[in-house]
Amino acid sequence: MRNYAAWLIGILILIGVNVSIWHKEQLIAHGTTVFLPLAPVDPRSLMQGDYMRLRFALEQDLVRQLPHDKTKNADGYVLVQLNEQAIAEFVKVESQLPPSMAAQQLAMRYRVREGQVKFATNAFFFEEGKADVYAQARYGEFRVADDGELLLHDLRGQDLRILPK
Q1: I need a labelling partner for 128 at 20 to 30 A (CA). Which of 65, 70, 142, 154 fits?
Q2: Domain span at 22
Q3: 139: buried, middle or exposed (CB in 10 Å: 19+, 13-18, 0-12)?
Q4: Structurally, how many domains does the chain consist of?
């Protein structure tokens, strides 16, 4: 009986992992592309290898609009306006997903933990020795779902150019 329970638990874990992967693949394939300008950060970690700790210019506007008691820990949505290049510009902060938005507006989910704003992730790992390439990054390329879930897809350089791999 224990063997069956172990197999069942293992199968359920595999199903859960695969469903999560499928959701991420669907978001990459069908999500709205949004570019968030990056704020400067240090791209190296001695313990983790090459990576870029991400901060976005949008974070400053978001934190300024949060009530003082929400600057340490909060969840919500930031409403952005997309320009013709799909670069996001801050509009306002919402505690819940807005039921409707104007044309070219999008709601993106954010989290604040211990005063640090996070959009999907706050780090981008890359192949060792590519620090010079990713030091040129100026934008985070995200895919955003209708429910505000977002996924970091890539980093882009000046004028939204794809960075050489």
Answers
A1: 142
A2: 1-30
A3: buried
A4: 2
